[in-house]
Amino acid sequence: MTILALSERLDHHLNDYYSNKYTHKAKDWKLYLEIVCDSTEQASQMERHIKSMKSSKYIENLQKYPEMIDALKQRYGS
Known about the structure:
Blueprint: H1 6-14, H2 40-53, H3 56-64, H4 66-75
Helix pairs in contact: 3-4
């Protein structure tokens, strides 16, 4: 798996790099929350967890309560 910088990943979403994925339909992506992880594996696991919650309120709470991010990092530690 290639490690992409956050700016690269956002650029891919904005420029149809993921043209066969669900995310290609939106053209207004913007960074809402950045979580620095210890590894690509940890980042992938945390991303899957956050997406599985299917809740914008959950994501808002991650931004509002940093202890939630700490708990996720501990849960998916490398």
